[in-house]
Amino acid sequence: MLPICGKCHAAIKSGRLVSPCYLTCSGTCGKQYHYKCADVPESLHEHLQSVPGLNWKCPECAKKCFCLDSDSLNEFLGAKFDELVGNLKDIFSNLKTELIESAERQIKDTLPECKPPVPSFSAILKNKTKPAIVIQPKNPEQDFNKTKSDIASNIDPLNANIQLEKVLSTKNEGILVGCSSVEQNSRFKLLAQEKLAETYVIREIKGVSPRVKLVGFSQAFEEAEWNDLADHMIKVNSSIFNPKSTCEILKFWPTKKKPKVYQALLQIDKTSYDRLMAAGGLFAGYDYCSAFEGLLEANRCFNCNNFGHSSRVCKNKVTCPKCSCEHELRNCTSEHLKCINCVRLNEKNNSLVDTNHAVWDHCCPVYKSAFDKLKAEILSP
After folding, report:
1. What region holds the PHD-type domain (predicted)?
2. Residue 212 forms beta bridges with which residues?
3. Residue 110 is assigned to a structural domain of this protein
4. Most-buried pick from 81, 90, 257, 283 (CB within 10 A)?
């Protein structure tokens, strides 16, 4: 029986199953069609016969196939991509938080045990600026009440015209006595030495005076001229100093980066310190000098950059405070910061302290530790 065309319903002549004169639908119907009825160009006839896997479907079967809208598909895939990226961001964010917390725990475990926080420098000054007298018994078995009773029976503040401002217990069952003026402290010390020296150790605490570093002097001054320079700055900067202010120059030296620019380390009274730090600087002649807290600045070695000694006694290798290489700062061409002190800390404790900063950075953990240690020494009588 001859095959029937699915469109014109006429018999397909020749009756051959494989014939170039008809096509078989690859859809569900499986019907056969004349090439003309299938509306297939002659240029494709040969390809449909010779190319494996190249099939043709009749219009009815083609309607039953699913079709995709390209715009809708792109929108769908874009939404799924955004959702995937958002999930990945959350995963990486949580992972970053976990890594940071893990590193902080590791640093905390590897660093030496920290002592209780040391009071700020300004808090120290409020409590320790004025001088005082410390009296301690020579007998180690004597208690504080006996010390206090002996002082009260031998020194009457009213008869000695002394106004007490501070009375505190100290170690070794001693007592600290602070009077309202330097003269009264001196008088109390003389009375104590006269009446209590046989059984007590008597010593004077001169009190803490703030230190400030001034940077910006255009000329160097000899040590003999330091007092004249200090008097000049007191007179010129009347908004910071008053006639009763104290100002002493402890050190005068050139800066590292600009050898023709000089800096000085000053020790001044608390009131002047507060005003100077609030102003940010002062005038020395026609030079405006910027002010920085100078408590720790002179304690860093400019040879190895460690704290606690000076370059004059240093026997370590020269290291750059900027990049930690073995050369002087003036020869450094590196654009990257690396703290040699934090590098040493990591090597010693096998820790993960950040090293991407210079040794003079006030956020450096080694700098903070040295700074707190020095303040703790000031706190002790």
Report:
1. 2-64
2. 266, 293
3. no
4. 283
For residue 235, which phi and psi values (nearest 5 degrees)?
A: -75, -40
What angle (nearest 5°) sits at the alpha carbon of residue 93, between those of residues 87 and 99?
135
pLDDT tens figures, 60-110: 887 766 555 566 667 777 888 888 888 888 888 888 888 888 777 776 666
126 and 176 fall within a common domain = yes
**Is the residue at 115 inside a domain?**
no
pLDDT one-digit tens code per residue, 177-236: 888 887 888 889 999 999 999 999 888 776 666 788 899 999 988 888 888 999 999 999
Report the alpha-carbon distance of residue 318 to residue 334 in Å, rounded: 16
Residues 6+ apart with CB under 8 A from 190: none
The range of the structural domain enclosing residue 82 comes to 73-105
- Global pTM value: 0.37
Number of domains in the chain: 5
